[in-house]
């Protein structure tokens, strides 16, 4: 049996792992060959010293090698956050995904149940009547019929179950919080990704670059793992192997600023109700924030470099009923399981 012991001894002295060593270490964890104490020790040693891009990349490669993949059309994008910001907002990236799909860009959205909020993407979609327990083989059909599919992380990354006990018992952020948005099961080449802390934007962008991502915005907005309408947001862009940092304000997209508390969410039923009201045309700071994030995703998709123009396109997706139609198609497609016929 492989062992983490030699690597743990080095990590205890503050050393870092190479990409290959990290891939091997996380492979050992995901194959069920490490003890809970070893897993916890490795995670905390990395956390206390600070995870490196090489370690993140190795861990991502180990996860991608063991995931159950999903098929997505060329040009598909992901809109996803790390979670962990503790802000308890309404479901912004989930709504933005529907808006983007309504604008004609296929979305392969990766997500999970609530970890740090009261309503994660999985929770909100379930409350909206979307069936997330469909056989994974049905997902390509859902994508064709709805223009969007949801990739529930635990179903595609089952090997992570070996680390779930230590993660829960540690009760604190670990490298796994950073890895989720970097391991889309459809291997999309473009994504709009939020981080719970601005310090992780560049390392996450560098990691995505190492695994072949073509274009991405890594964003953090005033404490949120989203772009926000409460003020400027920090962005690190990966584009064709180059990385640059800049800020984005609501005014850049022709949108007004609103206080952060206007984005506060509740339980899944509440968030689902607000999301559907938004798609039905309700005007609010929530709508503005969703438009801002959808506009960024449209830029990442490569349709335009004009954020203001992309915001207009996102608004039309809502106002013309296209985004609501995505939700309705998603409901129908996931409730129809052709594999059972």
Automatic annotation (TrEMBL):
A biological process term (GO) from this entry: L-tryptophan biosynthetic process
Binding site for 5-phospho-alpha-D-ribose 1-diphosphate: 81, 84-85, 89, 91-94, 109-117, 121
Sorted UniProt keywords: Amino-acid biosynthesis, Aromatic amino acid biosynthesis, Glycosyltransferase, Magnesium, Metal-binding, Transferase, Tryptophan biosynthesis
Cofactor: Mg(2+)
Keyword RNA-binding: no
Protein residues bound to anthranilate 1: 81, 112
One annotated Gene Ontology cellular component of this protein: cytosol
Binding site residues for Mg(2+) 2: 225-226
Annotated ranges, domain Glycosyl transferase family: 75-324
Pathway of action: Amino-acid biosynthesis; L-tryptophan biosynthesis; L-tryptophan from chorismate: step 2/5
Record-linked Gene3D superfamilies: Nucleoside phosphorylase/phosphoribosyltransferase catalytic domain, Transferase, Pyrimidine Nucleoside Phosphorylase, Chain C
Residues that bind anthranilate 2: 167
UniProt catalytic activity: N-(5-phospho-beta-D-ribosyl)anthranilate + diphosphate = 5-phospho-alpha-D-ribose 1-diphosphate + anthranilate
Record-listed Mg(2+) 1 binding positions: 93, 226
Enzyme class: transferase
Ranges for domain Glycosyl transferase family 3 N-terminal: 5-66
PANTHER family in UniProt: ANTHRANILATE PHOSPHORIBOSYLTRANSFERASE
Family assignment from sequence similarity: In the C-terminal section; belongs to the anthranilate phosphoribosyltransferase family. Belongs to the anthranilate phosphoribosyltransferase family.
Protein name: Anthranilate phosphoribosyltransferase
Organism annotation: Teichococcus oryzae
